[in-house]
């Protein structure tokens, strides 16, 4: 039987005086737990939070390590600039992220949820330590929340929520630093919309930390829904050793039968409000808190933990196969996408050129007997360090008159200029192909185009 989230014995519904926790929600009071996985969580959480705080400030080669400039439609990533014209590269980046998730999930289960998801990191590194510090451990919090709104309860809630609010604003500033730039944000030079978005993020985080919590994983997160399709019997999961644990007993004499002594510690520490002994559950984020809890209990009896990282195959006495069809397929897709992306970025031109025919007529006939075609040439200087001057010329129309303004672009700027091409009527076919060449002095980018003219025998106005 798989117990649902709301059936969990670690969930308690506070009394009628609870603060907005009425209705179907069972409030979860996760007990403090210590152990080797919690030490690892603390270390990795510290590194991840340091990355969040520091990365927006870092630059490589004069460019932000990570910046999403929405108004300019530019993404800066590890010294590379992706502009709006790099749509294919951005698709490759998205595929790289998706295949990485597929590959690691098929191998290591919900590694992302338990160790890297911001929701987990914030709850483990901010919310639970603050709650422990201000309101005490599980039983004290439960007792206080079930009682009336005394002064003791009010000031503790006020301090806890104030700390949540301050941290939520700091996280909002760090996140928006990747969009608006941290210096502009912290010096007040960013726009009102940037500060409005900081507020939106902070309010969302505060509501999540103060109230929503595990419901985000259970009801909102799409990954929790489809990760079951990415894993199989050979994927790593946190699981209970039924063979050793059952039948459960009570107290030390229980180890004479199944080893589980029904201490319930694995349930009390679970932030998702589930009992891992009920088997695989979608709510489980593989956070390993129950592993540490059981390691502590079983360790005192000189036995290995009943809850551990394992695979279904291993639990059933079969050998775990790390190399299998889906992992090989995901790894191959990952390698191909990564290879193509790296090759494209390494060989990309320092300028981006697009040529479009000017809207309106295909051609015009000038009074001096020439046929005129007008194009719009858009050039983006992708060099983040230097200003470039560009020369535009035609390849394939030697007799053409070409009218195009001078073009000089600051680093990362772009501009669209008109290009007028004139040829004597009757000198060309109705459609003649040629290239628009844009030369920045070190490299030439050619873009194919066509010159349109009336049939040779025809005279008169434009179509
Ligand atoms: S912590 Fe271990 S011994 Fe205690 S109830 Fe859970 S599985 Fe059984
Ligand atoms: S069952 Fe264990 S691993 Fe899963 S969410 Fe609960 S404590 Fe974390």
How many domains, as an integer?
2
- β content, as a range? 15-25%
Low-confidence stretches: 1-22, 459-463
Q: Report the end-to-end length measured between terminal Cα atoms.
A: 76 Å
The tally of strands reads 18
Structural class of the secondary elements? alpha+beta
Overall 3D shape: elongated
Ligand catalogue:
iron/sulfur cluster
Radius of gyration: 32 Å
The count of helical stretches stands at: 15
Largest sheet: 5 strands, antiparallel
As a percent range, the share of helical residues equals 40-55%
Q: Estimate the mean pLDDT confidence.
A: 89
Layout of strands and helices, then pairs:
Elements: E1 11-12, E2 27-28, H1 36-54, E3 59-60, E4 63-64, E5 66-69, E6 74-77, E7 80-83, H2 87-108, H3 111-116, H4 118-135, H5 138-146, H6 151-180, H7 182-186, H8 192-212, H9 214-220, H10 222-230, E8 237-240, H11 242-245, H12 265-268, H13 289-300, E9 307-310, H14 312-315, H15 325-347, E10 351-357, E11 364-365, E12 370-381, E13 388-395, E14 401-403, E15 407-409, E16 414-424, E17 431-439, E18 444-452
Antiparallel strand pairs: 1-2, 3-4, 5-6, 6-7, 8-9, 10-12, 11-12, 12-16, 13-15, 13-17, 14-16, 17-18
Helix pairs in contact: 1-4, 2-15, 4-6, 6-8
This protein binds iron/sulfur cluster (2 copies).
Structure characterization notes:
The protein is of the alpha+beta class. The protein folds into two domains: 1-60 and 109-317, no CATH class; 351-452, Immunoglobulins (Immunoglobulin-like), CATH 2.60.40. The chain is 42% helix and 20% strand. The protein is built from 15 helices and 18 strands. Strands 10, 11, 12, 14 and 16 form a five-stranded antiparallel β-sheet that branches. It has a four-stranded antiparallel β-sheet with strand order 15-13-17-18, with no helix packed on it. Strands 5-6-7 form a three-stranded antiparallel β-sheet. A hairpin with a 4-residue loop joins strand 5 (66-69) and strand 6 (74-77). Helix 1 (36-54) crosses helix 4 (118-135) and helix 2 runs antiparallel to helix 15 (325-347). The longest helix is centred in the middle third of the chain and has 30 residues, at 151-180. The chain starts with 10 loop residues before the first strand and ends in an 11-residue tail after the last strand. Residues 1-22 and 459-463 have low confidence and may be disordered. One iron/sulfur cluster binds at residues 238, 269-270, 272, 274, 276, 284-290.
